[in-house]
Amino acid sequence: MHNDTIAAATDLSWQEQALCAQTGSDFFFPEPGSSVREAKQICGLCEMRSACLAYALSNDERFGVWGGLSEKERLGLRRAQQWDDA
Ligand code: SF4
């Protein structure tokens, strides 16, 4: 594991500036099949997006929108990274 990845996994200070902390978690953990468009719009305005996505990938977060990516999008990214590492 890369040092930056380890730091992302353990440093939670970015959460203090997370936009979703101000909006509540409902947008980010919608019912299955519901739209994540609103969550992605908020993530697009969030300065913590990179740290959030790094945290989600490092901690294998399976549910919800993190760093502007849905569950499926993060899974695709993880698979692409595994392919690159092979
Ligand atoms: S990128 Fe989205 S989910 Fe992550 S901290 Fe920002 S608003 Fe929250």
Automatic annotation (TrEMBL):
Q: What GO terms describe the biological role, i.e. biological process, of this protein?
A: cell redox homeostasis; negative regulation of DNA-templated transcription
**Might you report a single GO cellular component term?**
cytoplasm
UniProt lists the family membership as follows: Belongs to the WhiB family.
**What PROSITE patterns is this protein classified in?**
4FE4S_WBL (PS51674)
Q: How is the cofactor bound?
A: Binds 1 [4Fe-4S] cluster per subunit. Following nitrosylation of the [4Fe-4S] cluster binds 1 [4Fe-8(NO)] cluster per subunit.
| Compartment annotation | Cytoplasm
Summarize what the UniProt record says about post-translational modification: The Fe-S cluster can be nitrosylated by nitric oxide (NO).
Q: Which residues form the 4Fe-4S Wbl-type domain?
A: 19-76
Question: Looking at the record's lineage, which domain of life comes first?
Answer: Bacteria
Q: Which organism is it from?
A: Streptomyces aurantiacus
Pfam families in the cross-refs: Whib (PF02467)
Give the protein name, as stated in the record: Transcriptional regulator WhiB
Residues that coordinate or bind [4Fe-4S] cluster: 20, 43, 46, 52
Keywords recorded for this protein, A-Z: 4Fe-4S, Cytoplasm, Disulfide bond, DNA-binding, Iron, Iron-sulfur, Metal-binding, Transcription, Transcription regulation
What function does the entry list? Acts as a transcriptional regulator. Probably redox-responsive. The apo- but not holo-form probably binds DNA.
Output the InterPro entries linked to this UniProt entry: 4FE4S_WBL (IPR034768), Whib (IPR003482)
Gene label? whiB
Its Gene Ontology molecular function terms?
4 iron, 4 sulfur cluster binding; dinitrosyl-iron complex binding; DNA binding; metal ion binding; protein-disulfide reductase [NAD(P)H] activity
Which cofactors does this protein require?
A: [4Fe-4S] cluster
